[in-house]
Amino acid sequence: MVIDAPAAVRRRQITDGDLDAVAELLSRGFPTRTAAWWRRGLARMAARAVPEGYPRFGTLLESGGRPVGVLLMIVSRVGDGLRCNLSSWYVEPAFAAQSPLLLNHALRDRAVTYVNVSPAPHTRPIIEAQGFRPFSRGLLLSLPWLRVGRERVRLHRIGGTVPERFADLPEAGLLAAHAGHGCHAVVVEAADGPHPFVFAARRVLNRLVPTTHLIHCRAVQDFVRFAGPLGRHLLLRGCPAVLVDLDGPAPDLPGRPISLHQTRYSRGPNPPRPGDLAYTEGVIFGP
Questions:
Q1: Eight-state DSSP code of residue 139
Q2: What is the side-by-side order of every strand in the sheet holding 184-190?
Q3: 77: β partners
Q4: Confidence tier at 205 by pLDDT (50, 70, 90)
Q5: CA-CA 20 to 30 A from 127: which of 109, 156, 204, 236?
Q6: pLDDT recorded at residue 114
Q7: Does domain 9-109 have CATH number 3.40.630.30?
Q8: Is the confidence at residue 269, as pLDDT, over 90?
Q9: How far apart are CA 7 and CA 19, in angstroms?
Q10: Rounded mean pLDDT, 35-57
Q11: How many CA atoms lie within 13 A of 167 on its CB side?
Q12: Which InterPro entries match (predicted)?
């Protein structure tokens, strides 16, 4: 009996010329998403700014002249540090033994904080063994417009260009970048100064309920503080519910915890806090 030996496997960075093949591979690995959906997200990755010296798309495994495995890497500068969202890790079953090649290579830079915000259940033991630790566990499906508050504030919707009055905010670039990706960026102007927020579109309950996800704020308690005006602002734009990441007891907001199995992980010098998913896959790829 003759057994065909598998073709040699090599690891390399993803290039622009690989994007169609990578999209097809990911659509097979994650069949709830179409190749067109992956192409749209990869096109956004191609257009965004990336810190010098870091991969634009990530890494693939190649065998016989075609990709057989992929790990996307969304690298961004967040504050004074670097963050890399490891996303969409898939290797064809015939090459599963080579899967650690992707992750081990990706994790080599100790200056970078790596995050995995949507790990498949079967990969959690692997990433925990690599030193990843949870930074949020579960989600709150909140109805913030029901919260009553007496504080007088003004809300400012931010587009692709940040108004001059907020140009000096440390988050000015973050607000503009996320607005450019279709997120809802808002600055709440209160007596103690401006407070930035970013929300990304989601759908829950079998994708029937229009919802937003709190993607960035300085602290979840800021969202609790301004929940009433923010919630009514979003409600008027067709979004009655807001998803808030949890790491402990639910904050004092109308709503109920959901997806308690949804754990997000990080490894590195600057672990994110709940409520900070800036520049991650939910922003780049969308709902």
A1: E
A2: 9-13, 58-63, 66-78, 81-91, 112-116, 255-267, 133-142, 241-245, 209-217, 193-204, 184-190, 154-158
A3: 82
A4: low
A5: 204
A6: 97
A7: yes
A8: yes
A9: 22
A10: 96
A11: 4
A12: Acyl_CoA_acyltransferase (IPR016181)
Name the CATH architecture for the domain at 139-265. 3-Layer(aba) Sandwich (3.40)
Cα distances (angstroms) measured from residue 45 to each of 19, 81, 167, 214, 234: 11, 20, 25, 21, 27
Torsion of CA 173, 178, 179, 185, to 10 degrees: -90
Q: Which two tokens stand for residue 105?
A: 């290579």
9-44: per-residue pLDDT in tens?
999 999 999 999 999 999 999 999 999 999 999 999
pLDDT-derived band of residue 122, with 50, 70 and 90 as boundaries? confident
User: What is the mean predicted confidence (pLDDT) over 93-120?
Assistant: 91
d(CA 2, CA 5): 9
| Contacts (Cβ under 8 Å, ≥6 apart) of 168 | none
Taking alpha carbons only, the member of 81, 48, 80 closest to residue 72 is: 48
Positive or negative: CA dihedral 66, 68, 72, 73 = negative
Helix (H) or strand (E) holding 186: strand 184-190
Task: Reply yes or no on whether the pLDDT at 206 is more than 70.
Answer: no
Helices (H), the chain: 19-29, 35-47, 99-106, 124-129, 172-180, 220-225, 227-235, 281-284
What sign has the CA pseudo-torsion 130, 136, 139, 143? negative
* pTM listed for this prediction: 0.90
Q: Are the C-beta atoms of 226 and 190 separated by less than 8 Å?
A: yes
- DSSP of 230-274: HHHHHHTTT--EEEEE-SSSPPSSSEEEEEEEEEEEEESSS---T
What residues contact 82, with CB distance under 8 A and at least 6 apart? Answer: 51, 54, 75, 76, 109, 111, 112, 113
